[in-house]
Amino acid sequence: MKKKWFALILFFLTTGAALSACGQEQSGDEATENAKLSIVTTFYPMYEFTKEIAGDRADVSMMIPAGTDVHGFEPSAQNVAAINDADMFVYSSGQMETWVGSLMNTLDSEELIVVRSADNDEFIQSKTHDTEQSSTIAENDGDILEEEENVPEAIEVKGLSDHYHTGDVVQLVAQIEEYTDSGNVQWYIQSNVGKWMAVADQKTAAFEYKTTGEDFKVKAVLYDKLGKQQAQSQDIEVVIDNHEGLDPHVWLDPVLAQDQVNTIKEALIQADPEGEEYYEENAQTFNEELQKLDEEYEAAFSSAENRVFVVQHQAFGYIAQRYDLEQLAIGGLSTEVEPSPSRIAEIAELVKEYNLSVIYYQQGANSSIAQAVAQETGTEVEVLYDLEGITQEMQDEGIDYLTLMRKNLEALKLSIH
Fold first, then answer.
1. 207 near 376, Cβ under 8 Å?
2. Both ends of the chain: CA-CA distance in Å?
3. What is the DSSP letter of 137?
4. Which of 60-74, 194-208, 359-373 has the lowest mean pLDDT?
5. What is the pLDDT of residues 53-74, one digit of tens each?
6. pLDDT above 70 for 12
7. How far is Cα 141 from Cα 189, in angstroms, rounded to an integer?
8. Residues 115-159: pLDDT tens digits?
9. What is the CATH classification number for the domain harbouring 341?
């Protein structure tokens, strides 16, 4: 089996391979349906960058719908079939789309051009604001869960995020309203030898635990007043994904985004040499917009005195690095559960230490919970967009990469000035 790979610095393309539906001499305006390239992209930035360059010489589709975790995405049989039938597959990086390596093993197209648009050498290290461990796993044998038979898995647990980073605080809530006359809840974590160990200070419906560097499972067990197990939750898997210690959100840097655009452009020219001038013009036009965006950010922050901003999720390190800012991440807050007093106290201390007026949440997280944090800490709440997913409704309204990056700029000005 042969596959063609294209990357920013190194690419492998079999000489003399047949090019799919691109041998006809035609301008972008003259391209016919049967002559268009078929391109599959992973998530929104890859989709928009590719579409801006390819124009009407290609049919560009996006695999991952808005609201789906890119890291944990699992391609379906239909996805695999679509890629096998395509001329080109565009993704960002193995650190972002962690499943791409496995996907490649399932493909059997000899002519597919695979484009990794992000250069690993440009990645920066991920960082999380460090706080003290909030819980400890009990070590004595008396705190090992003795699993009883026929205990119903009737407890629903809310608050789980798609993934966490080392140092994030996991906050979960067991829904036990119908068991108000019962004794108490005990939370357990599964050790690496398969035993369920009680978390010593987690005996209420709310669970709070600071992550280490390994995945683990947690579950809640409800006991009646006599100490008999009455109900339990399903095993909840907490996934720690530090992206190999690297931040994969490279498209949020308008300068590095231009590198991604150029990588995709070169792959398009390789696939469709007749469209070289068309692709060059489109890429230049879009990169000029990205350069203008970079200049707007630079002008806004070049003389700022307060250069610190606090985010829920550490997705904005490239903006921080490019414009000499400092991003502090307080991971683990969920929009499903109310932050505990200890978490609010931790954030309040951070607000006081850095004299903050705004806490940033990613798209979709500006909820009543976010407002509760703001009220308790005396701050405002603003949304930052990581651009991993934009709904079709937003696209139909004309909202795109440049629009949301400028929204991010205006939001950041509230902290950085």
1. no
2. 55
3. B
4. 359-373
5. 999 999 999 999 987 888 779 9
6. no
7. 14
8. 999 987 778 876 554 444 444 444 444 478 888 888 999 999 998
9. 3.40.50.1980
Separation CA 83–CA 66 (nearest Å)? 19
Q: Which of 112, 54, 108, 127 is nearest to 286 (CA)?
A: 54
Name the nearest CA neighbour of 282 among 296, 297, 269: 269
Q: Is residue 220 part of a domain?
A: yes
For 171, the token pair is 């906050």
Only one residue has tokens 């629009």, namely 403
Does one domain contain both 395 and 375? yes
Q: In terms of domains, do 80 and 116 share one?
A: yes
**Same structural domain for residues 222 and 252?**
no
Which pLDDT score is estimated for 334? 67
Identify the domain boundary among 201, 216, 241: 241
pLDDT band, very low/low/confident/very high, at 368 (cuts 50, 70, 90): low
323 and 390, same domain (yes or no)? yes
User: Cα 87 vs. chain centroid, distance in angstroms?
Assistant: 27
pLDDT of res. 169: 84
Same-domain status, 108 and 10: yes
Same domain, 216 and 254: no
* Residue 110, domain extent: 4-123+247-291
Instruction: State the pLDDT at residue 369.
Output: 62
372 CB burial (10 A radius; 0-12, 13-18, 19+): middle
- Candidates 70, 234, 247, 249; CA nearest to 160 is 234
Q: How open is the CA angle 22-23-27, to the nearest 5 degrees?
A: 70
Q: How many domains does the chain have?
A: 3
